[in-house]
Amino acid sequence: MASSMTPLSHAFASVLFVVIGLVALRGAPLRAAAADTLSVDQPLSLSHGPLVSKRGKFALGFFQPDNSGHWYIGIWYNKISKQTPVWVANRDSPVSSPESSRLAISSDGNMVLVADNNSRSAIWSTNVTNIGSGQTVGVILDTGNLVLADASNTSVMLWQSFDHLGDTWLPGGKLGRGKLTGGSTRLVAWKSYSDPAPGLFSIVLDPNGTSQYLVMWNSTRQYWTSGNWTGSSFTGVPEMTSADAYPTSMYPFDYVDGADGSYFTYTITDDSVLTRFQVDVMGQIKVMTWVESAGEWMPFWSQPKAQCDVYSLCGPFSVWADNSLPSCRCLRGFRERRPQAWLEGDHTAGCSRDTALQQCGGAQKGKKDGFYAMPDVKLPSDGEGVLAAGNADECGLACLGNCSCTAYSYNGSCWLWYGGFINLQDMSSIGAGGGTILIRLAASEFSTTGSKKKLIIGVAAAAAVVAAVTVIVLVSVFVLRSTRVKALRRVEAGSLTAFTYRDVQSLTKRFSEKLGGGGFGSVFKGSLPDATATPVAVKKLESVRQGEKQFRAEVSTIGTIQHVNLIRLLGFCSEGTRRLLVYEHMPNGSLDKHLFWSGSSHGVVVLGWEARYQIALGIARGLDYLHEKCRDCIIHCDIKPENILLDKALVAKVADFGLTKLMGRDFSRVLTTMRGTVGYLAPEWLTGTAITTKADVYSYGMMLFEIVSGRRNARRRQDSSAVDFFRPLAARMLAEGELEGLVDIRLGSDDVDLAEVERVCKVACWCIQDDESARPSMASVVQVLEGLVEVSLQPVPRSLEVLITNQTNNNVEFFSGLSPE
Q1: pLDDT tens-place string over residues 138-154
Q2: What global pTM score does this model have?
Q3: CA-CA distance, 332 to 335, in Å (whole number)?
Q4: Catalytic positions, please?
Q5: Is the sign of the CA dihedral 165, 168, 169, 172 positive or negative?
Q6: Coil, strand, or helix at residue 87?
Q7: Domains annotated on the chain, with CATH
Q8: In 10 A of CB 766, how many CB atoms?
């Protein structure tokens, strides 16, 4: 058949094959080739696809980062749905024509990347000396290590990529320093998410000989350290001593201090777990774990904890602000130096002036540079003190007298900044206070003076009068429509809307459809005035004693929190004593309606086991976000099925988070009066000890029992006032291996995964330990439910032992103050 094709057909087929290869590589890595070896007579090209390690874990080939026009030779994970490069050969030297490029074994035995078949110069090479032609091969291993090895014995390695790390440290790799050469292996972040060239952020073992890691900016400025190695952990990473926060049994580190050099290495005890240690583009070091069910890499651990602690993340002449998006923004009078990189999230280049400083640039006579003040900021750390300036005016003159001075601050002493100062942080959104910095700008950046200024003011005033007359005529017709459209635009933009009480009355048709209620207040259904009448849920808060300013500040904080498993706050109303919150509406209502119903209620269904398991996992992820990933830790304090809402796809959303701040002292009263809440309270609520995130963990564990069984942990019998407890029964049956008896009887046995049932019940028993230090973090719960970590059966809490004994004696008269359904 091939011999019958014309030359034109052959040419067309070849072009078509290359085009198909290019399209495929943009979306995902090619996996057609099965060979793991590069030899003299078998070079690697785009058309042949990548090399794949023996067990298929890693691939080596040409790839193109998202939003990039360049191509690279790299290594990526071969069996996951998201292409994730872990090493790049030609980081600084991309190729633009991959179809004519190749990775090959050269005549001197090195691995080389050449732009075309006729090229004698290599774009990249392993650069090993004293090896001969035909004596070497390249092999991609299942560890993710690319080696140049002896062709007759591949266990003899002449070069390996593990000695030339990029931004990723894989298990088995060595990160350290040589004592003879003085050189160090270093992880260096990508320049941007679309450019693997070496960036500004890196991590290195202390060149001065200690066993601590340093995270560096531009290889010159240290902004985080691990602390020295103690033999089991780093002194600056106390969480490594807690198996709950960082299970070292799963990620064991090993430090080797030998005659030739010192290095760390780490291993993974479970080969099915995919994990990597990375220096991110944003300057944090992260341990990431692949979660197939989510199709994402999930952060397991990161440092520095706060993103704003990364040195020069925002670059010169910009400011970090937690409440803005993006978090970096240019100062007044400046603009982004690299706009495209800024849009992609890389702000390290910072900002540049719109107008040059006039006093230092030959300005006209009489023109003076000026200053504008920024209050409530954390001042940059690279200022220089000026002893001669005794007051603020003298400090400002000292700055004006130096062409390199760009800002000053005076707080009893004078500080000047030169050049592009960095690490400026806006503290106003978190109420932390701070200093005031005065930024130097050219005179033209400020308002004009004299007669010209008066003329401008006069013209502006006349225009304002005309405009005001026009507005008065039109406002009576369009004011309501304008208000509603403006509010809608704010919601669409992702910011909170400050509704008037009249707006809320209109949205809810005067609160005509009640969705539910509780100790915090009643909830009503409403809809936004958009084309599709987007449904919303409006909560009327009761007994809120906060002032207007404090209430708005707390609501603003809650409104910035967004996560797939947290209910989204769209807006609020605060007028007089009226306090209302406007949330997205969840069509499937609260979890309790689906778990505990016993009839044919409208819109309520029996949740299958798979749905229940995903709901439990989603709640855990939402709580983990509140506890660990928000700027300030948020303790929910009232986890129960009534506060878990379900969207159209039955995705769980944690509701009413952050209300502890809004309710203030009344919150404890709400907890003790709300129906059923007491059944979820951790022991520390009753003993009066401090409340931590572990109180939420306890409540979550109590709720897990209900998700499994489909019935309340505590309820009254129809024939008596006694109270049944499911959790002691669950603890006993779990210990005896009678899993089938734990599951909701409305579920078919064929539809239930008993291994998952056992996992959920073990987690529940772990969460409800009497001692809060024995309970896991929600991050650990997420890992267990995702199947990344195994958990043994925890000891039965003392309170449950009492309940089990009393149930055996048919005496279940406990907690008579409960009001179960």
Answers
A1: 999 999 999 999 988 88
A2: 0.53
A3: 8
A4: 638
A5: negative
A6: strand
A7: 24-161 (2.90.10.10), 165-304 (2.90.10.10), 318-445 (no CATH), 447-585 (3.30.200.20), 587-821 (1.10.510.10)
A8: 23
